[in-house]
User: What shape does this take?
Amino acid sequence: MSRCLPLPESMGANVWTLARRELRESLRSRWFLLHTGVFMLLGIAVSFLSASTAGGGGLAGFGRTSAGLANLVTLVVPLMALTAGAGCVASERERGMLAFLLSQPISRFEVIAGKWLGLALALTASICFGFGSCALVISLEGSSERAISMVQLACLSLFLAVGMLGVGVLISVLSPRMSMATGLAIFAWLLFAFVSDLGLMAGTIVWKVSIQSLFVACMVNPLQAFKIWSLDGSGIPLDVLGPVGQYATDHFPRALPWFAAASLSVWGFAPIALAALCFTRRPRP
Amino acid sequence: MIDILDVRMSFGSLHVLRGVSLRVAEGESVALCGTNGAGKSTLMQCITGVHSFRGSIRVGGFDVRTDGKRARRLLGYVPQELAFRDDMRVSEAVRFYAALRGLRSTDVRAVLRPVLLEEHAQARVRALSGGMKQRLALAIALLGDPPMLLLDELSSSLDIEGRESFLRLLMELRGEGRTLVFASHRKEEVAMLADRAMWIVDGALHACAADGSVCVPAPCFACVKSIKEIDDVAMPTTA
Assistant: This one.
């Protein structure tokens, strides 16, 4: 038997142990590799096409690349983060592994924090691979001076990914089965990525929603907040987003990044905090 | 010592445990018997703090609800359904759970030797048989040398030979003064390992009397006789 001396109870050590395992498992997961591969390939394609059609780079070329990548991120990154988060608790619960894990000398908060951290690190790796490939293509096209903007876009993508990961973990905590968690995660992705856009358009036409309300609705949606912030940060005129973009540029030219930052911060913190609260108070594993 | 006092637990409208009380002394070995779905596994999971319940459970003086980490540090738990990630190596699983138990460094082979899995340290968990997984679960439960062991359906996945060696190992552990609480359907296991047996019938705990009939609903520490005196552990009927 092992007779090693136990370390003093340490929340940080337990969280890190769980995070490392989650990171390792994610990097081995076929779904995660597939999402990362798709993100890399589409990113490279967008970068190559945007840069080459702009005649070898420059501000216009990078702005187009940046806009293309922002659109790509709003589709791929939330899907990746939501499905990864949705699987983390529900799959272990379904296979009976969660009860065994919780019978160890760790707290439920440590379990959820460790899983979240591990998945956040895995998403960071995935985003770094994706943007790294894009940066390589852009630098080969002679646009290496825009590297800082690329890093900025990658950081914003990570911000978005962390928020969506929290939503995924919350779904996972509340779902008794893996199939339900995956279904809800995909539904949430559709809601954020498509339904809200279409809903806003329909609302504008049918109920004559005011432009102020539309702007608020856009800022509440983390994907729209990300898109507005990333385009604004890349120096792209927001009128490409339609009347809401024009309104934002006219009325909040300086406050816009702060609004977007506030929206993404709330999405980054609130869902994971709620997930931790639900998980620690859940009567069963 | 494990102190269980008036524990009640239900899944929705289904009452699984109805006022269970039990005291397990240091070094004592207690068998939990009962039909499938009687509540044995649920009681064990309440002791580990996995399920919430009404009443009180203290392990080594620590309340499993308010001081769960300290209480679980004193417990090694072998579940009925063995659950490991299939693509994990045996050595990875041992190291992972050792780290959660705060062990500074772990000699994986030394951990696996007593359960005869030393040669399988580099095997994937999915390559192990049910019996091997059960032995791996015991090796993990013994990490950090906990003074109390909870074993749910302790030899359910084992063949005859595996069961014999598993029981011998448990006898050794018991001989070292470890407290055992185990659920079992097998009379020979109960007779070999337990100081006393408790029946769970419809979520209530009953102590076995010498003639195999039910004494009174638990707690009933005074009138319980050693299981060694019981020739035949009969399924009790509620009084």
About this structure: The radius of gyration of chain B is 18 Å. Chain B touches chain A through 40 residues (CB under 8 Å). The helical segments of chain B are 40-47, 68-73, 90-100, 108-112, 130-141, 160-175, 187-193.
